[in-house]
Amino acid sequence: KKVVVLISGNGSNLQAIIDQCHGQDADIVAVISNKADAYGLERAQNADIPAQVILSKGKTREVFDGQLMEAIERHQPDLVVLAGFMRILTPEFVRQYQGKMINIHPSLLPKYQGLNTHQRAIDAGDAEHGASVHFVTEELDGGPVIVQARVPVFDDDAASELAARVQTQELRIYPLAVKWFCSGRLIMNGAHAELDNAAL
Ligand code: GRF
């Protein structure tokens, strides 16, 4: 299955998907970044995956999303993967890819939608935190959850330490979700993600 990955930064999730999925269930046909300095662009180049930048700075959401959609449609992907992509997409864009666009969010959704999730979990005194892979819908960080991973929160945790513990799990569960979708065992059915349990 053809996959397009959208990034904005380091691309550690992109790298995990390249290492664990590319050339097997998934064929990453393009990496697109909205930041010219995203290290993930180098990761794509190192893997001989076409990479391009579409700047969002100074553009309205509608203009940027239109340019992004045009670039994506050239590849006719089966799946769009948001991997550290730090843009809120317009409802029109989301509708276009509903059911075949996924995202990873560093919290146990539906808790802590939005930013600064690790500090919020620490401040709330949560004993557990984690990461969630979900289908993207018009609700920000709100679509049907596909898979989650839990990590403990220690009393003396700094946000950076908790973030590192969460990211270790992200790099494990995101490739799983990509493999399940690309092998036809994961679909979005209305408000739910449906996984053929033979996939487990
Ligand atoms: C990740 O930790 C993820 O939770 C969030 O963006 C962060 C950076 O991702 N979506 P990456 O290293 O660019 O993949």
Distance between the termini: 20 Å
Main sheet summary: 7 strands, mixed
Radius of gyration from the alpha-carbon trace, in angstroms? 16 Å
Q: State the low-pLDDT regions, or none.
A: none
Strand order of the largest sheet: 3-2-1-4-5-6-7
Number of strands: 9
Strand content: 15-25%
Question: Structural class, please?
Answer: alpha/beta
| Helical fraction | 25-40%
Quickly count the helices.
6
Mean pLDDT: 96
Which overall shape is indicated by the principal axes computed on the Cα atoms? Answer: globular
Keyphrases for this structure?
200 residues, seven-stranded mixed beta sheet, two-stranded antiparallel ribbon, 6 helices, binds 5-O-phosphono-beta-D-ribofuranosylamine
Give an overview of the whole structure.
The protein is α/β, with parallel strands linked by helices. The chain has six helices and nine strands; from the N terminus they run E-H-E-H-E-H-E-H-E-H-E-E-H-E-E. The protein has helices at 12-20, 39-46, 61-73, 91-97, 117-123, 159-182, and strands at 2-7, 27-33, 51-53, 79-82, 101-105, 128-135, 145-152, 186-189, 192-195. The strands form two sheets. A seven-stranded mixed β-sheet has the order 3-2-1-4-5-6-7, with helices on both faces. The protein has a two-stranded antiparallel ribbon with strand order 8-9. Helix 1 runs parallel beside helix 6 (159-182). It is globular. It starts with a strand and ends in a 5-residue tail after the last strand. The mean pLDDT is 96. The structure holds 5-O-phosphono-beta-D-ribofuranosylamine. The site of 5-O-phosphono-beta-D-ribofuranosylamine has 14 residues, from helix 1 and helix 6.
